[in-house]
Predict the 3D structure of the following.
Amino acid sequence: MSTINTGALPMDFLELQSFLNEKVALYNNPDFIESDPVQIPHLFSLKEDIEIAGFLSATIAWGNRKMIIKNAHRMMELMGNSPYDFIMSHTDDDIARLESFVHRTFNGKDFGSFVKGLQHIYKNHGGLETVFSKNQEEDSLQKSIHEFKKVFFEIEHLPRSQKHISDPLNNSAAKRINMYLRWMVRQDNKGVDLGIWKNIPPAKLSCPLDVHSGNVARKLALLSRKQNDGKALAELDLNLRKMDPLDPVKYDFALFGLGVFEGF
C-alpha cells in the first residue's frame, strides 16, 4: 500500500481517507451554519429565493466571514427579503436604492448589474438551475460555469461587474461559484448544504479551493501545485474523487475545518 508523505502526519491512503471522513463528520453538521454564509439561503423556503440568495451571498464570499454574513443579510434586506420577487419585478427606483451597498470591491452598481443579470436568467433562460445544468462534462462543471458567465453577461451590463464571476477556463479556481454549486447540488442530509438542484450529480462538483483548504491539502499531499488556480483545482478534485467518487466535495468540510477551526 502506498504511503502519502504528509510531514508530521505520514499516513497511507486508507488512513488519510479515514482521518478526513472523521473531520467531515465533525464539521458537516448544523453547527457549521452559524459562522458560514450558507446560513443566508437557509432563511428561505421558495426554491428561487434559496438559489438567488445563495448566488448573491456566494458572490461576496471573500474576506472576513462575519462581514460577509452581515453584508449578505444587508443584500436580502435591500431586496425586501423577497429576492425572487425583487429580481422579477424591481423598478428603477429599487435599483437606485441598491447603490448604498458595498462589500469590498463589489458595490451597489455591481449589485444592480447582478439583479438585471439574474432577471435575464429567469425570464429568458429558465432560471439558475437550468443554465448551470447545461454544458456538464463527464466529471466537471467548469465548462458549465464558463458558459453561465457568458449567458449572465450577454445583456447590457457594467464591464467592471464581470470580475465578480470567475471563469475556470481562464485557469481560475472559481472558489465562490464552486461553493455555491456545492450548496445547491449536494444533498448532505445534515442540514448544511441545501441540495435543491436535482439535475446535476454531486460527483461532478469541485472543491471550493481557497487559502485554507489549499494549505491543508498541501500538508496532506493531496495537492502539490503552489498556486490556488484552475490547475490546482483539477489536481485536488482528482485526489478527492479517489476517496469518494460520488461525493468528493464533502471533503471541503474537512479541509476548511482543519484550516480555519484547527489551524492545521
Q: What stands out?
A: The longest strand covers residues 3-4. Confidence is low (pLDDT under 50) at residues 1-10. The beta strands are 3-4, 11-12, 102-103, 106-107.
